[in-house]
Protein: Myotubularin
Amino acid sequence: SFVAFSVYSPNTSRESLKMELLADVSLFPGEERIIDKDVIYICPFNGAVKGKVLITNYRLYFKSSEDVVVMLDVPLGAISRVEKMGGASSRGENSYGLEITCKDMRNLRFALKQEGHSRRDIFELLFRYAFPLSHGLRLFAYVTQEKYEENGWTVYKPVEEFRRQGLPNNKWRLTFINVHYELCDTYPTVLAVPVKSKEEDLRRVAAFRSRGRIPVLSWIHRENQAVIARCSQPLVGMSGKRNKDDERYLDLIREANDTTKLTIYDARPSVNAVANKATGGGYEGDEYQNAELIFLDIQNIHVMRESLKKLKDIVYPHVEESHWLSSLESTHWLEHVKLVLSGAIQVADRVSNGNSVVVHCSDGWDRTAQLTSLAMLLLDSHYRTLKGFQVLIEKEWISFGHKFSSRIGHGDKNHADQDRSPIFVQFIDCVWQITKQFPTAFEFNERLLLTIMDHLYSCRFGTFLYNCESARDQHEVRKMTVSLWSLVNSKSDTYLNPFYTPESGRVLYPVASMRHLELWVTYYIRWNPRIRHQQQSPVEQRYKELLALRDEYLKKLEELQRSDSSSSRLANSPSPNTSSSPPPTPSKQYTHLQTPL
Structure:
């Protein structure tokens, strides 16, 4: 690019010194150096550290030039705000430079020399490449040329996933009414609806549901045929409007497995649901016969955003030691996690007992996605496998239109946008809480969850880009970008849990009380060097070593048996008149070897 060319002019030896310090940065195919500069990194743990910073079209990379080894490797997608610190006349050491706020629980400060506007070029280039969409540039996912053995875009195929669940059947059918996103522009193209519903009914119901997000099946219980259906709020309004088609449609969902009463879980606190009537929304009233409405008291996106902000304040840069427990409690983060988990447990319990449920919040793309996906994770062991978990995220979050672009703000400079909120982060936190309570129930490990969290922001993969499928189709995400699952499935060993024990029919019931929930330290406090050194669990490490040892011994045993059988064949090679039976196969001789936990 022109910028890269103008900044990189190979003339001075000082430049070659810089290159030497930054020579070990391995760039991705398609990644280009934009600028590098001498800076002082104001490290919250080591104080002021001199070094070089490199900005590419993907990352900010810093390496210290002093004895203290300090390195930073930050995807530009993780940056939410870049500000100038101090002015040309600022007094005090290291008071002039840049302040960078990140989305991943850290902030960075760099000091530069005060003379000659030394920060102007780096500020402008960093601002441009950290927020490409605000500057008419493409997101890095469209620029990278990375190649992987696996194609992650093939992980989730809606019809195949419905088949795995046993659909269609005599009560539920698949409809392609939304194939051109005409029924609902934020829903996927394939939907599962009651057999007795006609296409015209679906259109009439869509007119009465916020954003046309009608109740559709997310999951069906193989034995009792109870379902989890998801949707948005009904458009009841202040005057208490009714819609016979909507009432009848919900009754069709109830009748599909003869549930006595359909349970409608409204994720919101009841006061919020009532307040939504003023803007034309609302909730299902007494006119919905054979249905009961339960409010789950989960707060809205703005409350969650402020809660995580408070959490960041007490963990970065320094952990609030003196009043840790009261400080943590005052953020309310774990309380919100508890309410989301508790709601999912209620949904799973109802369905497990044969009752069909409908889940919604206001628009059905934030709290609803949290509740349906977590309940499905508790009910269906398939979603607890490495591939199954990818399907769950693709299905309940990506295809059903969780607004990733708006909630995360990919490539967008508007850091104060009120649409931003850590709803998906909270979901992954809930998954982590469940894995802590059931350490053998999941095929994947914590590293997978951390990788997902990092690439939620990085913009290196197309997986979390845009708000819905129709927007992804328009921007040719599947054709032009790489899926995060391509990376994961090409090195799946990295993400496997050595303690995993498959149990197909088991429903998980975690304890959602404050006493059993923990702060996810290895995510929220991972930038603190004291924490980072403890990340690898010694038990897991030892267990992996033992498994590797077992594999080694099995290999040796197999080799010994091979050489043994070939030497015995030679010794007993039959004369033309005699016949001999074939040697026993090695596999049969060692399959009984097991490593107990």
Q: What stands out?
A: The mean pLDDT is 91. The two ends are 56 Å apart (CA to CA).
